[in-house]
């Protein structure tokens, strides 16, 4: 019994002694740090994901305080958090489009043919370097889960040899995009709805042989885009996100279904013929020439031209126009 | 005179022959972690010398006064309590407090060195070399003076090893190294060769 007492006394005494010494030293050797660093650190999410390019939130906070990093450099921050950071630094946060990681491939085991049975180690880089991968397509997802293992928020799963990213869990740190040996994961603005889900730059014939869902570079999307946001580069459509109006016409017209439309189905205007009086107001309001019909005859919407902007609804006097979901291709 | 020779022997033996890093393989983490540049390696070496020298003395006092209080016998107490089973925890407490103290000192006096040492400075706390020296001092039954010089000798050995390795690594930066050996592998090889070289000192004292 007395031993326990002695032991507790001895360690307690030592702890107290060093505690007092350190407390005195802390006052004596106090260093005035930048108080903003602690405040910035407080406002950051604390995920320490490294998405900003700095080793953890502490380093990012220090870099922001030193003026080396922009206040909106954190991809994980919410808008409020960014404004808070900017408030601490006394500057404007500026608008930052939140990004989300997206797998730009549809080459699942069914879609992309399998060349041989891969029985090597479970690693995408290894699988991809053995005779250019076990799938027929040399651009497709290897499905060995390198991205799954590196993802700090467990947002990625592999289904049927193809990676899927849970958008709600993705914090856009970009680790998966950097890890993927095939470079098929990209960071895309969260609001962007039409996404090209193929990275095969080969000509249509070879892509058709390799994958049922690959882009054959036909260019239909480029022609159909009402705002000219799509350009064909290396047999692949490239969507200019700033110009794109998310009408979904490209996704609807793609013969291979490799332009995906995430989120709500795009809308298209529909004219109720029984209510339409044929005033042509809507026809004049339409910027895309998507409404046809003569004066005093019920008008009709051309779905392939309509982008669902809703301008016609605003001008219609008889409430004859409403939006309907574009039909599934 | 004999005592003086004994202390010289202790210093040589702890710094060169039983070099902490290269012969006993203690304190490898900062040895590999902070040895990228000679400057920071030297800073780390000095910090470790200070911590180990202080820790050696303080732990010796703690051992004699609190853990194994033989002085109580002189006061007429029948049996002194034997608290040596608390050695590890008490010594770690001493080292942790010291490291905190040194950290504050460096942050105040040399902010550049402070940021260069980074996480390795608080990691001296868990540097087994510090605890190793303290426990070896007790096990060998050194007196206070011997303890002090054994601590300084060991720490100088550590500083020597880490500065030498930093010098080697600075040269390796410019060397053409086969890709698989880039980075840590070549550092490990360099450290291993240094360890073999230090074995040569074992014939120094009969």
Task: Explain briefly what this protein structure is.
The complex is a heterodimer of chains A (329) and B (206). Chain A has 329 residues and is α+β, with helices and mostly antiparallel strands.
Give an account of the 3D structure.
- The complex is a heterodimer of chains A (329) and B (206).
- Chain A has twelve helices and twelve strands.
- Chain A is flat, with a radius of gyration of 28 Å.
- Chain A is of the alpha+beta class.
- In chain A, a hairpin with a 7-residue loop joins strand 10 (291-292) and strand 11 (300-301).
- Chain B is mostly helical and 206 residues long.
- Chain B contains ten helices and no strands.
- Chain B has helices at 2-17, 28-33, 38-67, 71-74, 87-109, 111-117, 120-123, 128-139, 144-174, 184-199.
- Chain B is globular and about 70 Å long.
- In chain B, 36% of the residues are buried.
- The A-B interface holds A 2-3, 6-7, 10-11, 13-15, 18, 21-22, 25-26, 29-31 and B 62, 66-67, 81, 83, 85-86, 89-90, 93-94, 96-97, 100-101, 104-105, 107-108, 111.
């Amino acid at each position: 019994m007395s031993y326990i007492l002695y032991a507790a006394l001895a360690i307690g005494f030592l702890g107290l002694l060093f505690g007092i010494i350190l407390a005195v030293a802390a006052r004596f050797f106090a260093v005035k740090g930048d108080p903003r660093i602690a405040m910035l650190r407080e406002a950051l999410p604390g995920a320490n994901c490294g998405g900003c390019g700095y080793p953890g939130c502490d380093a990012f906070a220090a870099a922001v305080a030193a003026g080396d990093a922009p206040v909106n450099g954190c991809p994980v921050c919410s808008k409020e958090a960014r404004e808070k950071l900017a408030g601490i630094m006394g500057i404007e946060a500026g608008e930052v489009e939140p990004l989300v990681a997206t797998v730009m491939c549809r080459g699942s085991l069914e879609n992309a043919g399998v060349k041989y049975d891969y029985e090597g180690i479970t690693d995408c880089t290894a699988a991809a370097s053995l005779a250019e991968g076990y799938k027929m397509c040399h651009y497709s997802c290897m499905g060995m889960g390198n991205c799954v293992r590196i993802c700090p928020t467990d947002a990625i799963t592999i289904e049927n040899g193809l990676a899927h990213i849970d958008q709600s869990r993705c914090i856009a740190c970009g680790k998966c995009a950097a890890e993927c040996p095939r470079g098929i994961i990209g960071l895309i603005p969260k609001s962007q709805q039409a996404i090209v889900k193929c990275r095969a730059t080969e000509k249509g014939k070879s892509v058709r042989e390799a994958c049922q869902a690959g882009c054959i570079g036909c260019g239909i999307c480029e022609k159909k885009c009402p705002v000219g946001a799509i350009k064909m580069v290396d047999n692949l459509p490239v969507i200019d996100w700033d110009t794109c109006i998310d009408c979904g016409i490209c996704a609807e017209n793609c013969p291979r279904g490799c332009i995906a439309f995430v989120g709500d189905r795009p809308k298209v205007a529909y004219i109720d013929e029984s209510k339409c009086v044929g005033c042509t107001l809507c026809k004049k309001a339409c910027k895309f020439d998507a409404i046809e019909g003569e004066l005093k005859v019920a008008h009709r919407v051309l779905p392939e031209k309509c982008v669902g902007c809703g301008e016609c609804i605003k001008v219609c006097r008889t409430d004859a126009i409403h939006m309907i979901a574009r039909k599934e291709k | 005179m004999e005592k003086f020779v004994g202390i010289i022997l202790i210093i040589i033996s702890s710094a060169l022959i039983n070099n902490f890093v290269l012969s006993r393989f203690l304190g490898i983490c900062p040895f590999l972690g902070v040895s990228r540049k000679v400057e920071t390696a030297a800073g780390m070496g000095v910090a470790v010398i200070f911590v180990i020298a202080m820790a050696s003395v303080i732990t010796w006092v703690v051992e004699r006064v609190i853990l194994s209080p033989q002085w109580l016998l002189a006061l007429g107490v029948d049996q002194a309590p034997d608290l040596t089973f608390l050695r590890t925890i008490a010594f770690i407490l001493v080292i942790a407090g010291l490291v905190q103290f040194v950290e504050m000192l460096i942050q105040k006096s040399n902010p550049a060195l402070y940021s260069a040492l980074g996480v390795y400075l608080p990691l001296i706390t868990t540097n087994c070399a510090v605890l190793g020296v303290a426990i070896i001092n007790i096990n060998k039954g050194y007196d206070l003076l011997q303890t002090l010089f054994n601590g300084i000798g060991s720490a100088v050995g550590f500083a020597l090893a880490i500065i030498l390795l930093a010098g080697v690594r600075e040269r390796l930066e410019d060397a053409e190294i086969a890709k698989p050996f880039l980075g840590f592998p070549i550092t490990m090889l360099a450290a291993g060769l240094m360890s073999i070289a230090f074995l040569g000192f074992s014939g120094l004292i009969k």
